[in-house]
Amino acid sequence: NDRVQYERRPEISAKDAPTKDELRELVQYARARKLEVVPQVQTLGHCNYLLDKPGYAKYAENTKQDKRFGRWSYCPSNPGIYDGVFDLFDEVIEVFQPERFFHIGHDEFTFVPFGACERCRKSEPHVLVEKEVKRLHAHLAKKKLRALMWGDELLEEHHGGAPHNTYKAISGLP
Length: 174
Hints:
Layout lengths: L19 H13 L7 E4 L4 H4 L29 H16 L4 E5 L19 H17 L4 E3 L26
Parallel strand pairs: 1-2, 2-3
């Protein structure tokens, strides 16, 4: 998230974010102990680290900040968000050099109204989720990585049930 000193998008980095060299050392330390490091960049939900930065609020799903969560999720139908997301992915991949997997987060995005913006209203939430995951998956597949994600929004009995019914996306995911 913002815990990397990004070069392509330095405005996203937290002031006390570790340097890329510090993170590389941590990865080497873990690998020396036979641990597989799987980096994660939160997408769709938990994105206040991005959307609360100057210039990024325009990508928020909800123009009004939620009292508890702030600008929590980005609009998956706004193509402009993906330049930034893929810049973050690519820099994190460069630093962590994952062997097989990359975690896209993708949890708890229905904690605020989802599919409510002007661009998304015409689509059912599960269709938005399916398109979003496929887009992220395709980017990672080009880098020979498999996308991992949290499953709460794909479980009807968890966050994936009514009113958004995002659980319906699971059958269309790669």
